[in-house]
Amino acid sequence: MPTAVGLEIVVVLALLALLVAAFVAARWSRRREIRPTARRARRRPARGGPAGREALGGRIRDLFARRGGEPDVWRELEDLLVRADVGPVAAASLVGRVRERFAPGDDPARLVAAEVEALFAGDPRLRVGEGHPSIVLVVGVNGSGKTTTIGKIAHRLVREGRTVCLAASDTFRAAAVEQLATWAERAGADLVAQQRGADPGAVAFDALQAARARRADVLIVDTAGRLHTRTPLMDELAKVRRVLEKAGGTIDETLLVLDATTGQNGIVQARTFTEAAGVSGIVLTKLDGTARGGVVVAVREALGIPVKLVGSGEGIEDLEPFDPERFARALADV
Ligand SMILES: Nc1nc2c(ncn2[C@@H]2O[C@H](COP(=O)(O)OP(=O)(O)OP(=O)(O)O)[C@@H](O)[C@H]2O)c(=O)[nH]1
Ligand SMILES: [Mg+2]
Question: Which residues lie with the beta carbon below 6 Å from any ligand 1 atom?
Fold first, then answer.
């Protein structure tokens, strides 16, 4: 009998031990699952991405605090700027200028901000009102914020006492006309549209005639979002421009709408849209998110295209003239 009881105790103990072992193993494996993700999340700022862009100033100061006297600190500063979408060429020239000015005890993040601000200093502002009407052509990739920006610009102009006409030359996307019509109504602007699938150049031509007949001050032309890599679509844009010019229209601005979250692809976009449509300025949208829009520094440096406006939300009031100081301080986080 005593042996049987002893055996039972051993079995119960063994089962208990097994249970404890299984519990410990389960917890251990969960910790292992979680750990790499947590490490990735912590590492992300150093690799770029929204969190990285936010903390640029802190990372620059941190870099100089750790390795201030070392020769490769400048190369690392360049890396940090590239990760903030500034692009390798602009980063190298910015760092060159910061390096020249830097004296021990200086705040390197402030020097970066000052150089970024200087890059845009004296750039022209949005130009409307010279022609009869003055024409603003709005271009960009899909979903960058063209139609929303047009609504906001129209609202501003109407508030200033100008009469505005909108051309619905996005005849491609379903509901594009309705979207622009809604903005026209909100802003108090006129709309000229045709049926879906109509020729965008023909709509622009019609709209120009209508704007003239109504003695509108400004005509803003919405266009369909297009991939800058699709040559026929880029040619179509060039045609819209040609049609307007042939009809005697004065295009005061061709605005490329760039989404701040686009990253360095924005440079290629700026180059190809400029080749097709002669971009005169950039509207940097979605700056209300975590992205700081460092790509416009690359675009300004490489192509000399100024930033004219900044979109900071989805509302009709969420548009401001580009302020180089504010932009530079936000980018460098100072
Ligand atoms: N947060 C934020 N959202 C914006 C801003 N500008 C536009 N959006 C949003 O971006 C989305 C796309 O905007 P649209 O104006 O339709 O963009 P689009 O370039 O005309 O798009 P397509 O015509 O389809 O190429 C919408 O949800 C807008 O509300 C901005 O400055 N900030
Ligand atoms: Mg649109």
Answer: 140, 142-148, 170, 173, 176, 225, 257, 285-286, 288, 311-314, 318
